[in-house]
Design goal:
The complex is a heterodimer of chains A (436) and B (342). Chain A contains twelve helices and seven strands. Chain A has helices at 87-112, 126-134, 149-154, 159-167, 200-213, 232-244, 276-280, 292-307, 339-342, 348-358, 364-386, 412-429; strands spanning 141-143, 220-225, 248-254, 257-258, 261-262, 283-288, 313-318. The termini of chain A are far apart. Classes of the chains: A alpha/beta (436), B alpha/beta (342). Chains A and B meet through helix 5 and helix 6 of A and helix 3, helix 4 and helix 5 of B. Chain B: Its cofactor is thiamine diphosphate.
Chain lengths: 436, 342
C-alpha cells in the first residue's frame, strides 16, 4: 500500500514566522530551594472597603483582586470588615480550631499506626471551615469538599461519629461504605462528601434554588479547592447560580497546592480565583484565609447578601496547605520544605490566639490548658471509638449491607448476587458460618 | 376502547399529561431543561406546563447538562422531586459524572441520609435523520450504572403510566423516550406513510392519575415459535415483520431494562425454546449482550437454537445512510429465518 503523506507535516514551520512556544506552568520553589514570599502583595489591613451587601457585583469588582483583612500581624482587629465579635465568641472559635487541629493530629497518627486506610489534615486552613461555618446559621446547608471537617467540629457533631466513620467500624452509620473522612451528617446540615471533585458545586446551587423556590430562608454554602475550580462542575454551578440568583456561597480554598500541582495549573498565574466571579457577574471576595475574623466577616457579608435575595458570592480563601494532601502524599518530593513556615500570613490558630491575648481575654496558661484538655478529649473519644473496631481488624458490617441501599428496594439481580456472596463466605469459613 | 375519562393521545401528549398530573398532585415536582419552559420543549413534551403550574415549577435551564443533573441532585437532597429533560440522549454525556458518581450513588454512600428521587427524561434513538448526534441509543450505558433504573416506553398508555411511576420512584430513573414513535408507531418501512397513534389501541390514555409499576414487561403478542425481546421503537418494527411473515412469535416489550422482568423472559423462552433480541443501539456490549447471557444462563436446556441479536451496527449513526444502519425488516427477517430454520 502506498504511504499516504500526512495532510500537514508535523514539526515543520509553515512559514518564516517566529515559532510558537507552549507554556507549562512551574512553581517558583522546588525541594532544596529557599522560598521567599516577600513579593506577595499584602494590602494594608484596613485598605479593602466593605460595600453594602446589596451592592451590584460589577460595582465591587476590585474586591476580587484585593484582600479582605481584619487582623493585622500584631493581633489587632482593624478596618471596615471587623465583625466585632464578643470575646466569648472569639474563644469559641479558637476552641473549635484547636479541637480540629488536635483531631487531625490524632487521626493522622491513627492512620500511620495502621488503624485506617487514609486521612487528610486541614492544618493551616482551619479558619476557612470553622470561621465560615460560624458565620452562617446552623440550619444552613453545607456542601463540603474533603477537607472541611471543621464544619462538623464547628457544629458540635459528635467526634466519636467522625472517628467511627474513619475507622469504618461497627459504629459507622455509613456502614463502612465510604473512604475515611467522607462523612455525611444531614442533621448537622452537612451533605455527603463525594470523592469526585467539585460535583458538590452544582448540587449546592440546586439545594439553594429549591430553598428559594419554596420561600424558605435557608441558604447553601459549598467548598472546593483552587485546583478543582478547574472542573466543569465549578463553571456549571456558577452559571446556574447567576442565572437563578441562587442563595449560595461559593468557597474556593486556595491553599496553593492540589496534591503536587501548584495553583498555576488551575490558572492561578494569570489572575485570582475570586476573579472567576467577574465573568459570571456575581460578587467576589478575596480573603486572607489565615485570618479567622476576615473569613468570618466575608462569609457573614455573603450570607446576608444571599438571604436578602441579592444572590451568590464567590469567596477565595487565600491560604496555604501546611501538610501533605493526604496520608498518601509526600510533599517533600515536589515543594520546598520551608514554604509553610515562610508563608507570610502565618498560622490561623496562632493569629486568633494572639488577638485574644492582645484583647486581654486569653493568656498562655489558658491556651496550654485548653490544648491539653482538647488533646485528652480526642484521646478519650478515640479509645471509645476503637472499642467499636478499627479498619481491617475483622469485618464490622453485616455482609448483606453491601447490597442494601443501591436502591430503596432490592431488585432480584442484587438479591441473587447477595445470596452468591453469602454462599462464598460458607466456602471460605465453613458450612456452619452464618451472617451476623 | 375509550373509557369515559380517556382521551386519544400520541406519546408526546401522554408524557405531557404524566408531568401535568404529577405537577398537580405533588408540589415537590419540578420540571426543567433546555427550552422546556415558555416554549414547551423542542418536541413539545412540556407544552403548556409552565403556564399552568408556574415558572418556579417548570422552567428553562442553561445549556449545561452537568449543571442540569447536578442541580437536580441538590434539589433532591432538599426534598424536591426533579424531572429534568435532556434535550437529546446524545447530550447526556456532559452530565454523566453527576448521574453515575452522584445521583446513582447518593443513597448508598450516605446509607439513606440523602436520596435522589430524580427522573431524567430524554428522547433517544434514530430514524428521524438526526445524524450521529441526535440518534444514539445509550441505554446500555445507563443499565451499566449501579443505582439507576432505566425505563423505555413503547406507546402512549405505557409512557404515561411508566413516567408517573418513575417520578414517584425514590431512586434516580432514566426515562428514555423513543422519539421516532412520538407521533405514531413505526413499521420499520421508512418509505411507507406514517400511521398516527390514533389508530393504535394504546393511544386511549386516561386523563387522570394511573401508574404502571417499573420492572414489568408486557406481552405484546403471544406465540409459540420464538420469543422476541424488544423495547421502544423496535417493538413495533418487530410486530410488523412478524405479522407480515405470519410467524407465531411471542413479543415481549421489556418496558423497564433495569430492574428487568426476568420471570417473564424465562417463562416465554422456556415455552418457545428460541429467542431473538432486537435493539437499535450498537451491537458490542449492547443491552442485547446482557439479555443473551441471561437467557443462556437460565434457559440453556430449553433452547433449540442459538440466541440471535439484531442490532444497529458498531458505527456512529450515519446521516445519509440511516436506513442501511437501522435494524429494519430485512435484518430482522433474516435473523428470524436463521433462528427458525431447524
Amino acid at each position: 500500500m502506498p504511504e499516504t503523506p500526512p495532510k500537514r507535516p508535523m514539526g515543520r514551520p509553515a512559514s518564516n514566522l517566529p515559532p510558537l512556544s507552549l507554556h507549562i506552568p512551574e512553581p517558583r520553589y522546588r525541594p532544596g530551594d529557599t522560598p521567599d514570599f516577600s513579593d506577595v502583595e499584602i494590602p494594608a489591613v484596613d485598605a479593602t472597603p466593605r460595600p453594602g451587601e446589596a451592592t451590584k457585583a460589577d460595582a465591587m469588582r476590585e474586591l476580587c483582586y484585593g484582600l479582605v483583612r481584619v487582623l493585622d500581624f500584631d493581633g489587632q482587629a482593624k478596618g471596615p470588615w471587623n465583625p466585632n465579635l464578643a470575646p466569648d465568641r472569639l474563644r469559641t472559635m479558637l476552641r473549635y480550631m484547636m479541637l480540629l487541629r488536635a483531631f487531625d493530629d490524632r487521626m493522622f497518627r491513627a492512620q500511620r499506626q495502621g488503624k485506617t486506610s487514609f486521612y487528610m489534615k486541614s492544618t493551616g486552613e482551619e479558619a476557612t471551615s470553622v470561621a465560615s461555618t460560624m458565620a452562617i446559621d446552623r440550619s444552613d446547608m453545607c456542601f463540603p469538599s474533603y477537607r472541611q471537617q471543621g464544619i462538623l467540629i464547628a457544629r458540635d457533631y459528635p467526634l466519636i461519629q467522625m472517628m467511627n466513620q474513619i475507622y469504618s467500624n461497627r459504629g459507622d452509620h455509613l456502614l463502612g461504605r465510604q473512604l475515611p473522612i467522607m462523612y455525611s451528617a444531614p442533621e448537622h446540615g452537612f451533605f455527603s462528601v463525594s470523592g469526585n471533585l467539585a460535583t458538590q458545586y452544582p448540587q449546592a446551587v440546586g439545594w439553594a434554588m429549591a430553598s428559594a423556590s419554596k420561600g424558605d430562608s435557608r441558604i447553601a454554602t459549598v467548598w472546593c479547592g483552587e485546583g478543582s475550580s478547574a472542573e466543569g462542575d465549578f463553571h456549571s454551578a456558577l452559571t446556574f447560580a447567576t442565572v437563578y440568583n441562587a442563595p449560595v456561597i461559593f468557597n474556593v480554598v486556595n491553599n496553593q497546592w492540589a496534591i503536587s500541582s501548584f495553583s498555576g495549573f488551575a490558572g492561578g498565574e494569570r489572575t485570582t480565583f475570586a476573579a472567576r466571579a467577574v465573568g459570571y457577574g456575581i460578587a467576589g471576595l478575596r480573603v486572607d484565609g489565615n485570618d479567622a475574623l476576615a473569613v468570618y466577616a466575608a462569609t457573614q457579608w455573603a450570607a446576608d447578601r444571599a438571604r436578602t435575595n441579592n444572590g451568590p458570592t464567590l469567596i477565595e480563601h487565600f491560604t496555604y496547605r501546611a501538610e501533605g494532601h493526604s496520608t498518601s502524599d509526600d510533599p517533600s518530593a515536589y515543594r520546598a520544605a520551608q514554604e509553610a513556615s515562610a508563608w507570610p500570613f502565618g498560622d490561623p490558630v496562632a493569629r486568633l490566639r494572639q488577638h485574644l491575648e492582645a484583647l486581654g481575654e486569653w493568656d498562655a496558661e489558658r491556651h496550654e490548658a485548653q490544648r491539653t484538655e482538647l488533646e485528652e478529649l480526642v484521646k478519650t473519644t478515640q479509645k471509645q471509638s476503637e472499642k467499636l473496631g478499627v479498619l481491617g481488624h475483622g469485618m464490622h458490617q453485616p455482609f448483606e449491607t453491601m447490597f442494601q441501599d443501591v436502591f430503596e428496594d432490592m431488585p432480584w439481580h442484587l438479591q441473587e448476587q447477595c445470596d452468591q456472596m453469602l454462599a462464598e463466605q460458607k466456602t471460605k469459613f465453613g458450612a456452619d458460618w452464618k451472617p451476623e | 376502547m375509550m373509557s369515559a375519562d380517556s382521551k386519544t393521545m400520541n406519546m408526546i401528549e401522554a408524557i405531557n399529561s404524566a408531568m401535568d398530573v404529577m405537577l398537580g398532585r405533588d408540589d415537590t415536582v419540578v420540571v426543567m431543561g433546555e427550552d422546556v419552559g415558555y416554549f414547551g420543549g423542542v418536541f413539545r413534551a412540556t407544552a403548556g406546563l409552565q403556564k399552568k403550574h408556574g415558572k418556579t415549577r417548570v422552567f428553562d435551564t442553561p445549556i449545561n447538562e452537568c449543571g442540569i443533573i447536578g442541580v437536580a441532585v441538590g434539589m433532591g437532597a432538599y426534598g424536591l422531586r426533579p424531572v429534568p429533560e435532556i434535550q437529546f440522549a446524545d447530550y447526556i454525556y456532559p452530565g454523566l459524572d453527576q448521574l453515575v458518581s452522584e445521583a446513582a450513588r447518593l443513597r448508598y454512600r450516605s446509607a439513606n441520609d440523602f436520596i435522589c428521587p430524580m427522573t431524567v427524561r430524554t428522547p433517544f434513538g434514530g430514524g428521524i435523520f438526526g445524524g450521529q448526534t441526535h440518534s444514539q441509543s445509550p441505554e446500555s450505558i445507563m443499565t451499566h450504572i449501579c443505582g439507576v433504573k432505566t425505563v423505555i416506553p413503547s406507546n402512549p398508555y405505557d409512557a404515561k403510566g411508566l413516567l408517573i411511576a418513575a417520578i414517584e420512584d425514590n431512586d434516580p430513573v432514566v426515562f428514555l423516550e423513543p422519539k421516532r414513535i412520538y407521533n405514531g408507531p413505526f413499521s420499520g418501512y421508512y418509505d411507507r406513510p406514517v400511521e398516527p397513534w390514533s389508530k393504535h389501541v394504546a393511544s386511549a390514555v386516561p386523563e387522570g392519575y394511573y401508574r404502571i409499576d417499573l420492572g414489568k414487561a408486557a406481552t405484546v403478542r403471544e406465540g409459540e415459535a420464538v420469543t422476541v425481546l424488544a423495547y421502544g421503537t423496535m417493538v413495533h418494527v418487530a410486530k410488523t415483520i412478524i405479522e407480515e411473515r405470519g410467524i407465531d412469535a411471542e413479543i415481549l416489550d421489556l418496558r423497564t431494562l433495569l430492574p428487568l422482568d426476568i420471570e417473564a423472559i424465562e417463562a416465554s423462552v422456556r415455552k418457545t425454546g428460541r429467542c431473538l433480541i432486537i435493539h437499535e443501539a450498537t451491537r458490542t456490549s449492547g443491552f442485547g449482550a446482557e439479555l443473551a447471557a441471561l437467557v443462556q444462563e437460565r434457559c440453556f436446556y430449553h433452547l433449540e437454537a442459538p440466541v440471535e441479536r439484531v442490532t444497529g451496527f458498531d458505527t456512529p449513526y450515519p446521516h445519509s445512510l440511516e436506513w442501511a444502519y437501522f435494524p429494519g425488516p430485512v435484518r430482522i427477517a433474516t435473523a428470524l429465518d436463521k433462528i427458525l430454520k431447524d
